[in-house]
Amino acid sequence: MAGMRSEWNVVGMVIVSVGILCAACAGQIPTEDGSNARFRIAGTVVNRSGGAVLERARVTIRNTKDPRDVQSQLTGDDGRFEFHVQAGKYSLHGAKRGFISSDYNQHEQYSSAIVTGAGIDTENLQLQLLPSAVLSGKVLDESGDPVRKAEVTLWREDHATGVGRTVGIRREVTDDQGVYEFTPLDAGTYYLSVTATPWYAVHPATAAPEGVVAAPAVVDQGLDVLYPTTYYLGAIESDEATPIPLRGGDRMEVDLRLIPVSAVHVVFRSPDPDKGNRFPLIQKRVFGELDSPQYSENVRPIGPGVFELTVAPGKYALRLSGQAEPSRISDVEITHEHRELDPSSGEALSNIKASVRVLGEDELPKQLYVGLRARREHGVSFGLVNSKGELHIEEVVPGSYEVLAGSQEKSYAVVQIASEGQETSGHTLKVAAGASMVLTLTLVRGTGRVEGFVKLGSKGVAGAMVVLVPKHPEANLELFRRDQSDLDGSFVLQGVIPGTYTVIAIVDGWDLDWSRAGVLAKYAGHGQTVVVPPAGSHAVLPPVVVQTQVGAK
After folding, report:
1. pLDDT (tens digit per residue) in 55-72
2. CATH number for region 448-551
């Protein structure tokens, strides 16, 4: 079930019994008894922090099979709501000003549907809403004065991909008083970074073209300064940033202070300007990923093929682009003693051209994307496949990649890669430095569907995280599927690629790095193996039950 995000602390995980029914065709879990009986969905909206009832909250239910079948009402002073519906499955959603809108028992984008007509108590539900948090403060300079037009970025720890990572979620610009504010925020762990330019800074050229005598600087050296990108508590590298934990309803004020540093003037000389200039761009590594290239006004040409870069000291990735030679990328540490960049350093970037086909399909889907995911970084570089089934991805950093595929409506997986007459199964691609690769990619569409029930003994368990784990999980992240069990314990995993999997169900496991082999080892041994047959097959596996297993984080 889709819903908004909600982070819960993990106090323990329980592997619960899982009944599985797997088929390549679109089966359904029977929930309707064929009658016109009416059922009540009723309960109370409460504050998840403390349990107080919430009056005047908007509660909405929607039939999961018919989005047009929707009802909505406001709670009274007692926080109660009540709906009369036919047998079926319904999403239950609550909203109130000052709180995070939420579906019933939500975790991340998942929630539990309310199931009527199945002997389940739907009349004493508790719909919990978490008070929204606020993170605000000021950006101050070295004198304690406010910095206007500073760019503040909010980052958050995220487990949605099964691997803990930190992602940027919002960006604000400070006002005339240096104030920023982020709201509404869910509970979680956050980070802050800020970039700004000293209003008084002046950066005189310190180098001149050959044969020209540089004029003496007439600018006070104290004005030739920069603010490095700064994280909470003064770190200038993301791996030293201090986390900011927020709970529901917190109102936290965090001031960020910027300290100027003397600018470093670095000279770059293109090796052969007659064949075209190699323009230098610098990037920072932020929480494991390269940020956008800095097309800075602090890069100035000072002669044919000669540039001067004005930057703050620190670690950077230097990207050199040009038409005559392959682009290059290298890691550099710029200091006041390191004043000239080597144009021959680093690895040459590669270009990839590919033709794409899908097994069993004559036409390619619209908006089909193919991407490269580097194993040493979090980011994914995507390219759009054109109507002729062709793809071109430029300036690929040498390394080992997993080749991914997908569209907005359907899931796909790469099962074969052909290059220079050689075919390899799977989706791993090694890219050499400076290569121009021509590939043929064979894809398969995910048509499988895995259904079942999460049970503890004979009773259905709601709110469990259900994970479909592929063989060799850390090399097949795109094959994972997840769902959350509904009120009767039922779940559906859609768009499954043919293959052999293990299904596990974990209670209170939403903060786990659930795709890592070391984490999965605790639970996979007590899961249920299922085989999803190729598309077009209609083989059906009988339901099976996995014994209950209690675990701890």
Report:
1. 999 999 999 999 899 999
2. 2.60.40.10
